[in-house]
Amino acid sequence: MSEKYHEDQRAFERHPIDFAVDVNAGGDQAEEFCDKTLLKNISGGGVCFCTQQPELYCAGQHIALKVHLPGTDELEPSMECQARVVWIHHTDSLDDEACKHALIGVCLDGFMSFESHHFQDRGNSA
């Protein structure tokens, strides 16, 4: 299937984005992993991210995503959700080193939840 045909079949418009994301094995995985990588785009139903480790993924696989949002010195916000791998596109010809091996497309299994971690001023402990 050509990429153009695939894009015509999407229910949601995709928006470019370059946030860091941690991808972890879902609950049904026998082998655990954590892939720290970058999102390439996001839509109402899913996301696409790069990987240098495409061998970790297969269609239908359940994974957990933690998308790191821009933060401040006091706050480290993120969005977390469960997802399912829908497609894998090998991209050895791309110049982008982060996407040298593959793009992974996933659909979200429910809503993303907002998480935040507050940093404590370590120099002012009592």
From TrEMBL:
The record places domain PilZ at 8-89
- Mention one GO molecular function: cyclic-di-GMP binding
In the UniProt record, the signal sequence range is: none
What Pfam family is a match, any one? PilZ
The protein's superkingdom reads Bacteria
UniProt-listed SUPFAM superfamilies:
PilZ domain-like (SSF141371)
Q: What protein name is recorded for this chain?
A: PilZ domain protein
